[in-house]
Structures are given as structure tokens and as C-alpha cells.
Amino acid sequence: MPLAILAYHSHHVVGPDYAANDHVAFAADLESLTDAGWRIAPLAEVVRRHAEGGASGTERVVALTFDDGPVYDVADVDHPCYGRQRGFANAMRDFAARRPGGQPGLHATSFVIASPEARATMEAHADPAYTWLGPGALDQTWWNPAIDSGLVAIANHSWDHLHPALAEVAHGQDARGDFARVTSVADADRQVRAAARYLAAATHGRAAPYFAYPFGHHNDFLAGEYLPALGASVCAAAVTTEPRPVAPTDSPFRLPRLVCGADWANPDALLARLAGR
Ligand SMILES: [Zn+2]
């Protein structure tokens, strides 16, 4: 059974059209995935089916993920140039209203950054040529309502993303911009375990046990030793940005993901990617 995981960025709004605006792309993709026979399921189901060795029959199952945790994952936003953008969760509600029963398992997982200081700095240093982050965009106040809605899970995208805009990152050698340099238990604890702990407290223990590697950067230490040793309640699977569908031989701690914009820029290209082309 074909399995796949897609990634969207709700702060990718640099134009009015599909290729430059993940809100436009996301709403269109809900339609084209459904028309093409892909069933949208929670990431937990894709992880489980992968662990079971794939899937029965020819059913095609895709999970939706969002990265970095802007409130635009769930809330509409008025962009100064491109007008009102429909939050991803609202686009899912619009789809469900338009096509009742069309995707009964409609759900997405939002990978958020834990550190409040890192989020505040990233927000202040966003480059509008690449991304749109208005004041308060990386607040965490939307996390619990999102979980309550049953539409969006909250999961781990590290402590501070080792983001280049930060004056200081939680890493012994200041490995800004390079998550593959998280190669010790001490650094991994600061980036992964501390974030998991923060998310668990912020969500009253309801964060989903999945990790998205910042920048998609992974290494053998994290995928082969550290993350599996955390236990399934903290980390049951991790996702990269290797641009292809999930293969039966993939490690659950290195599941590939296709990224909107980077890996496809129109609906036909998405379907071709999902078909492994
Ligand atoms: Zn990210």
C-alpha cells in the first residue's frame, strides 16, 4: 500500500498563487488528493501502517504535516499584500463542509518549536521575501485549542531549530543552521528531550510523539540510537525532508516527506511525486 507524508509551511506566503502560497496550495491539494483516490489519515496511522509492513490492498494513505508552528496553521491571517489567507485547519473545515464524508479521517500534525525565546526571535527576524510572520505569529496559545479541535496534533520540531537568527542556540558547539551536528546525548537532550518535556507540559501531556528534523537534517546517531532509545511515548517516529513516498524499508526514525513548494508547485506535480515519479 502506498504511504506518503506531506509537509506545508503556513508562513510561506510570498505571492498570491499556488507556487508562492502554501494556503492556496493546501486548499487545492485537499481536492486533488481526494479526486486522485488518496485517503488522508493522521500521521499516527501512517506510522502504524508502516510498522505493520505497509498496507492491505491498494489503498493509498497520506498524512499531512505542518512545520515551525505559526498560528496560521489554524487561524486566518490578513497579509499586507496578498489579503486574507485561510488558516490550514479552516481550509480543512471548508473542505469537510464542501465534500461531506470526502475525507473522514481528515487530520494534520503541526511540528512546533518549543523555546519561547527562539520563537520570539525567529518572528522578529523573518525575511518577508521568503516567509510571512506577523507579530505573535509564533505564539503557543493556539496549541491546546488545536488539539481540542481534533483536527490538528502538536508534535516536536526541536527546542530552538538551531535557527541561524538566534544569538545563542542550545548546542555545545553553536551548530546554528546544521541539525546534523547534533551528535551527542547532551546536545540531543537539549534539542529533543527538552522540547518534548516543554510540549508535554504545555499540552497537558497531549503532544503527539513525533519529531521533525529541523531543516530535514538527520544523522545515524539521532535516527539509529538516540530517538529510538527515548521510547515510543516520547518519540515513536521521526520525519525528514527526503522527497519521496514512504518505502517499506524506511526506518521509522527517518520517514521521508515531500515538501510543498520545494518538491512540487502544482497539483499534477504533487500527484506525480506521490506516484514516485
Ligand atoms: Zn522547520
Please supply descriptive tags for the structure shown above.
TIM Barrel, single chain, 277 residues, six-stranded parallel β-sheet, alpha/beta, binds zinc ion
Give your account of this protein's structure.
With 277 residues, the chain is of the alpha/beta class. It has a domain at 3-154 and 238-274: TIM Barrel (Alpha-Beta Barrel). 31% of the residues lie in helices and 15% in strands. It has helices spanning 22-35, 43-51, 88-98, 116-124, 143-149, 185-202, 220-230, 267-274; strands spanning 3-8, 38-40, 60-68, 77-79, 83-85, 108-112, 152-156, 210-212, 237-239, 258-259. Strands 1, 2, 3, 6, 7 and 10 form a six-stranded parallel β-sheet that branches. It binds zinc ion. Zinc ion binds next to strand 3. The site of zinc ion has 5 residues, from strand 3.
What small molecules does the structure contain? zinc ion
Main beta sheet strand tally, sense and closure: 6 strands, parallel
End-to-end C-alpha gap = 16 Å
Number of helices: 8
Mean pLDDT reading: 96
One letter per element, helices H and strands E, the order comes to EHEHEEEHEHHEHEHEEH
Given helix and strand content, the structural type is alpha/beta
Shape: globular
**Content of β-strand:** 15-25%
Find the CATH superfamily of the domain at 3-154 and 238-274: Glycoside hydrolase/deacetylase
